[in-house]
Design a protein that fits this description.
Layout lengths: L24 E4 L2 E4 L10 E5 L3 E5 L4 H16 L3 E5 L5 H4 L9 E5 H19 L3 H7 L9 E3 L2 E5 L4 E6 L9 E5 L2 E9 L18 H12 L5 E6 L6 H22 L4 H15 L7 H11 L7
Parallel strand pairs: 4-5, 5-6, 6-7, 11-12
Antiparallel strand pairs: 1-2, 2-3, 3-4, 8-9, 9-10, 10-11
């Protein structure tokens, strides 16, 4: 896989993507989130407890971050059994699983396949983002999950059942959400404070689907989540789901309107980038607008 990510305009080096476990926050009974502090390529990490087991959601990028998360989770668990899951296969979410040698790693089948097929290519691509990223990815070994499910998996932690559910193709081919009580972990289906991440890297990876992503968000909006934990950015309520769906619909409509009027792809990118950055000047990740336009420009209602 030779696709390359670009650093945002004006940025010469990504900051080190370090998970700071000292910032962990209790958001519900026996449920902790280690927030990403708006640091690029750091996910929000979840730790969910029951009477006999604890589930960790996301590893952070690479083995050193994962070792810190594991140490925190082990101390938090106080002898309870550990499970691990990841919302999708991308490096900052899943490329530390090797550290969880005594945990049971559970994911959906499409995510496991993404990790097997695309993982090595993404490892090389992310290492090209600069020394700080490459350093965290040093020594990564991609592991095979212990338990793989097809559509959904109910994990009993003891007096508390967590639902792991594959959403179908959206941000990636293998997205899953994690639901416990009224808390929903979305992975990169939802971000706050930044433009939606479209990993559109033709011809190497074109599995992201803006249209199916919209459909997934519509379904999630109906499920009455009280707290939404996004892949990156601040936690919020169900309005986060609506905000993402509204943004994706706007991106789709503006892209298709220009494409259908015979505007070129580059002209469409230029116009929509100006439109959306003017509308959301405070959002990070402007480089993802071009990727989103590219994905939708090459999508029709028949080929979604």
């Amino acid at each position: 896989m030779r696709a390359r990510l670009r650093l945002p305009f004006g940025v010469t080096e990504h900051p080190a993507p370090v998970v700071e476990v000292g910032g962990a926050e209790d958001i519900a009974r026996d449920l902790v989130v280690i927030p990403n502090r708006r640091v690029p390529l750091v996910p929000n990490v979840g730790i969910i407890g029951g009477t006999h087991s604890v589930l960790v959601v996301e590893t952070g990028m690479g083995p050193r971050n994962a070792e810190n998360v594991l140490k925190f989770a082990t101390e938090y668990a106080r002898g309870r059994r550990l499970y691990l899951t990841t919302t999708h296969f991308h490096p900052e979410h899943a490329f530390g699983a090797q550290a969880f040698t005594d945990a049971t790693y559970v994911v959906n089948r499409e995510q496991a396949e993404d990790l097997r097929v695309k993982g090595p290519g993404y490892l090389g691509m992310f290492r090209g983002l600069g020394e700080a990223i490459a350093r965290e990815l040093d020594g990564v070994e991609l592991v095979t999950p212990d338990v793989v499910y097809d559509e959904s998996h109910h994990l009993d932690l003891g007096g508390r059942v967590v639902e792991l559910r594959a959403t179908g193709r959206a941000h990636s081919k293998g997205d899953q959400v994690v639901r416990v009580d009224d808390v929903l972990f979305t992975g990169d289906l939802v971000e706050t404070g930044q433009f939606a991440i479209f990993p559109w890297f033709p011809p190497h990876d074109v599995d992201v689907s803006g249209i199916r992503w919209i459909e997934v968000m519509r379904r999630l909006e109906t499920e009455n989540a009280g707290v939404v934990v996004p892949g990156h950015g601040d936690l919020g309520g169900p309005e986060l789901l609506t905000d993402v769906r509204t943004y994706l619909e706007l991106l789709r409509d503006e892209t298709w309107r220009r494409r259908d009027s015979a505007m070129s792809e580059q002209e469409t990118v230029d116009e929509i980038t100006a439109l959306l950055t003017d509308r959301h000047p405070e959002w990070a990740g402007r480089e993802w607008i071009e990727k989103g336009v590219g994905c939708l420009f090459h999508t029709t209602r028949e080929t979604r």
